[in-house]
Amino acid sequence: MNKYPTLSDMDISRPEEIRDYSLFSEKDMDVLKVYYKRKEGSLLPRRKVFKFPKRSRPFADTVDNQSSPQLREPSPTLLKAVSELHELLKGKKEAVDHKEQIVRRLEQLEAEVKTNVAEIKSLLDRL
Q1: Which of 41, 47, 95, 123 is the most buried (most CB within 10 A)?
Q2: What is the radius of gyration, based on Cα positions, of the chain?
Q3: Per-residue confidence in pLDDT tens, the chain, 127 aa
Q4: Do the beta carbons of residue 14 and residue 39 sit within 8 Å?
Q5: Is the dihedral of CA 70, 71, 74, 76 positive or negative?
Q6: Cα 96 to the center of its chain, rounded Å
Q7: What is the spatial distance between Cα 7 and Cα 36, in angstroms, rounded to a whole number?
């Protein structure tokens, strides 16, 4: 039996390589980013992004067919995935200083931008 069924359903086949995750909201979506620790030269992505639509339900029961305010709730799949990620990472989570974590993410972003710029320059050279 798979230890992380929700992550498997999300096509995460190597949970042992997950190093971190982040969660934030964009309008009517919750966005989960999963970050991987890959070996040098690996062609596999260093992160995967998953978007989950928020569920709507009435804030209160309506008695006379009046529209009530809507309450936005996270997807049950998202809640299960975050629970599995928390379980997965709690054993190997390093006590990392918040500043250090931001620096690592910035370095990762810089590397991604550098790769994208090189790819775009290559495309321009071909024209």
Answers
A1: 47
A2: 19
A3: 688 999 999 999 889 999 889 998 888 899 999 999 988 888 999 999 999 998 877 766 655 556 667 777 899 999 999 999 998 888 665 555 667 778 888 988 898 899 889 989 998 998 8
A4: no
A5: negative
A6: 19
A7: 13
Distance, CA of 82 to CA of 104 (rounded, Å)? 22
The closest of 94, 84, 105 to 15, measured between CA atoms, is 84
Residue that is written with structure tokens 């974590």 in the block: 101
Tokens 């709507």 -> residue: 56
Number of H helices, E strands in the chain: 3, 5
CA distance 75 to 30: 8
